[in-house]
Design brief:
Layout lengths: L2 H14 L6 H12 L8 H17 L1 H31 L12 H22 L1 H8 L3 H19 L12 H13 L7 H11 L4 H10 L1 H18 L4 H31 L3 H21 L1
């Protein structure tokens, strides 16, 4: 991979990770069309995805920091409740337990955890299928057309008002299933999860925040799973810095793309993205047929 190719793919990753048009689909199509190959196996994919995670953390830094703080306090409260339980059993007392989920941010943390479980299970189980599907133009094409359908459904759905206190953890689990399925190339992670949230009646601004923040543990988990295999590939120091250039590019472009998506979702104008996915998906399928 050359420096120009790395930066180019970083730009594509940064834009498409947050706009509902499938980053995996775009990268798969471009790699197949231009014959771009990475010498370091999965290392490049891991690095550009970590770049977009940093972009999410910067855009939603206040929410992320608050969630980290509430997570620490929840663990402390659970530990304290354990001590109260032991005391009450031993002394036959009736000390009160601390309420764990007493604010929206604590519920938000649990919602992200509920979504991460099915995402991790599906992502791990389907990892070989995803790798195989990425080597063809057919799977990304079909995925992009399905993304177009999801976006049209989201566009015509009624505006919701649900925030964490109104959302069940079962519903969060179902959104996590949608995120797990979106690991297939061509299915937009942000498009699929935001559509699932809007169809479920989530508030539009919270839907995009939830979609992006729930991606953090999913991407970090995938990175941890792949990092050992990625670094086992022997690449030169110069090649590593070429990959790093792509990761930095993905992070910088992703920051602006993420902020743009916040504006788009307020207006809920997904139809243009749906048409784009439909056209690109059709071109990809046609390309697959022609190149066979």
């Amino acid at each position: 991979m050359t420096f120009i190719q790395s930066v180019f793919l970083g730009i594509i990753q940064g834009i498409t990770e947050f706009l509902p048009v499938s980053s995996s689909g775009h990268l798969s199509i471009l790699r197949n069309l231009f014959g771009i190959r990475t010498d370091g196996g999965l290392l490049f994919d891991v690095m550009v995805h970590l770049g977009t995670v940093i972009a999410i953390c910067v855009v939603f830094r206040r929410d992320v920091l608050r969630m980290i703080g509430e997570t620490i306090r929840m663990v402390s409260d659970i530990w304290a409740n354990g001590s109260v339980l032991i005391h009450n059993k031993k002394e036959k007392d009736a000390r009160r337990y601390k309420k764990i989920l007493h604010n929206n941010y604590r519920r938000f943390v649990v919602m992200v955890l509920c979504a991460t479980i099915p995402t991790a299970v599906i992502g791990y189980a389907a990892r070989d299928l995803v790798t195989l599907a990425s080597d063809s133009l057919l799977a990304p094409g079909i995925g992009l057309i399905l993304t177009a359908v999801f976006l049209i459904i989201a566009d015509v759905s009624e505006n919701g008002k649900k925030i964490p206190k109104d959302i069940s953890f079962t519903n969060s689990f179902l959104v996590g299933i949608a995120q797990g399925i979106s690991t297939l190339p061509g299915l937009s992670r942000s498009g699929t999860t935001i559509a699932a949230c809007l169809i479920s009646g989530y508030d539009k601004r919270f839907a995009v925040k939830y979609s992006f923040i729930m991606a953090i543990p999913a991407i970090l988990g995938a990175a941890c799973l792949e990092i050992g295999q990625a670094f086992s590939s022997r690449i030169s120091l110069s090649q590593f810095f070429i990959y790093l250039a792509g990761a930095v590019t993905a992070g910088v472009v992703g920051y602006f793309s993420c902020r743009k998506m916040l504006t788009i979702v307020r207006k809920k104008k997904f139809r243009g993205f749906a048409i784009y996915c439909l056209i690109l998906g059709s071109i990809s399928i046609i390309g697959y047929v022609v190149m066979r």
